[in-house]
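Archive entry. Fields below.
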Amino acid sequence: GGRQKTLKSFFSTT
Amino acid sequence: MFEARILQGSILKKVLESIKDLVTDANFECTANGFALQAMDSSHVSLVALMLRSTGFDHYRCDRDVTMGMNLLNMSKMLKCADNDDTITMKADDAGDVVTFMFENPKADKISDFQMKLMDIDTEHLGIPDTEYEATVKMSSNEFQRICRDLSSIGDTVTIAVTKDSVKFTTSGDIGEANITCRRTSDGDMKEEKVKTEEDGEKVHNTKSSEGQNVDIDLQEPVTLTFALRYLNSFCKATSLCENVRLQLSKELPVVVQYLIEDMGYVRFYLAPKIEE
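PREDICTED_STRUCTURE:
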């Protein structure tokens, strides 16, 4: 069922 | 000096139980606002954000911001030594390297204190922007847990499709496939009143409703997203914190799964979707 994205592809590190 | 006393110690115990399997080590940020945490799982696919506002504690003192790095499994071991009806007090010196957990029974004739070593944890903090989500679903947390558990016996992922009138959970695996549709309950069945508070978020009081799934849908745009059930099942360990769970979804964004902690704050889980190639 698709490729698992990581959160870093949506949110930037601060 | 940091000192925070919570009358209903079971809340802290439940919070820890809900996050300790997802995250190993985490920094708790103690500020005048409250006791907060943001941490990702080791594969950086999911994130937990916890907020326990200072106003929700029976006593709260934080002279200056303190970061306390803790191993959550060890913290959970210590909190398990508190009874559910114990009052729990957390204490730390500004420059200290230990945190003290003090447990007091309701009769105040048994007082325990446990000291846990703090750790230096190098973590990445993610900036999560405030987003208007395309779909917001509120439903019984027990029902959501049940659906995630049932579907994970059939497949590894769930596709969540939200429309104006329903939310549909679909999975498939070697043995077959499964669809569970929860229809939106008619307006007003989800009795709640919202009170805007000064900081972050809203306080929601829910009164127990007698029957049904109590599904409330707020939709800008229909959304369909696919997620790994393993993580959702882990989030559901927070079920006992709140009668309802709120799911927020937008196209190609992580889902937000929120459990409110009455009068105190929330635990929110973020999970990155699976994207078709």
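CURATOR_NOTE: The first strand of chain B starts at residue 2 and ends at 6.
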